[in-house]
Amino acid sequence: MAKFNGETETKDPYVRVTFEALLEAVLPVTYRTPPGTGSDLIPVPGGVELKLHEYLIRELDHSQFQPVNAPDGLPPLSRSTAQMLDLGAEQYIRRGLALPLTEGFPGGGQFTRLAPIDRLLTLELIDRLEIPLGELSLPFKNNPGLVQTMVNSFTQLPYFGYYCEWYGYGTTRFAPPADRRLQFVPPGWQLAGYPGPSFGYREFRGFLLTYPACQGGSQ
Asked: Rounded distance, CA 86 to CA 79, Å?
């Protein structure tokens, strides 16, 4: 489990825009027709709009994936992950598979320059371990199992953040867990039709029925 200490979002713009590019591909803006409105479509915010890059970065940098007894100067896991995405993008581009590159996100690497569909295909390439593992930063260097585990998490963590209460914590979402307060209903709850937490309370529910133990064998 991640442990948060109340710090604000990452100060590393390279990491931030790389994860924004990941979210734009994995959890993009969609459109839906609200009940009773005919054919009118309204946009549904995606991962970038809900600032889920903050959630992903904090989950990674405070996760169990951090190596034990790591040497001094080891970069945060979020930065090593962003570098892995860029290395995968470079391999994908070299194969001549990419659509025309875009200008990318300011401050980002090659991964941000790919079209969203090519970013998803880059994840598949990394998952197949078709990248030079020896060129990765720790803890991914020559660690194929962790590489594949991380790629798998890219299809899970964004949705955990989207449908959980994290965004609804508002200005308290960076606070320690005990200090967070739900300030509004998260969009993910509305989409899922989740009514919110139901707080339990003590209530008399009758007497416990017991049977005396039989003695002396069967009767």
From this structure: 11
Which residues lie below 8 Å from residue 101, measured CB to CB, with a gap of 6+? Answer: 93, 110, 113, 114
Would you say 57 and 78 are in contact if contact means Cβ atoms under 8 Å apart?
yes
Cβ atoms of 72 and 60 within 8 Å: the answer is no
Domain ranges for the chain, please list them: 13-192
- The H or E element spanning position 144 is helix 144-153
Residue 51, helix vs strand vs coil = coil
pTM value?
A: 0.80
Contact 26, 120 (CB under 8 A): yes
Residue 204 in this model has a pLDDT that exceeds 80: no
> Quick one: which H or E segment has residue 44?
strand 42-44
d(CA 61, CA 82) in angstroms, rounded, equals 12
Flag whether pLDDT at 40 surpasses 80: no
Closest listed residue to residue 58, CA positions, set 22, 9, 25 = 9
Residue 166 has pLDDT above 70, yes or no: yes
Helices and strands in the chain: count of H runs, count of E runs:
8, 2
Residue 13, pLDDT above cutoff 90: yes
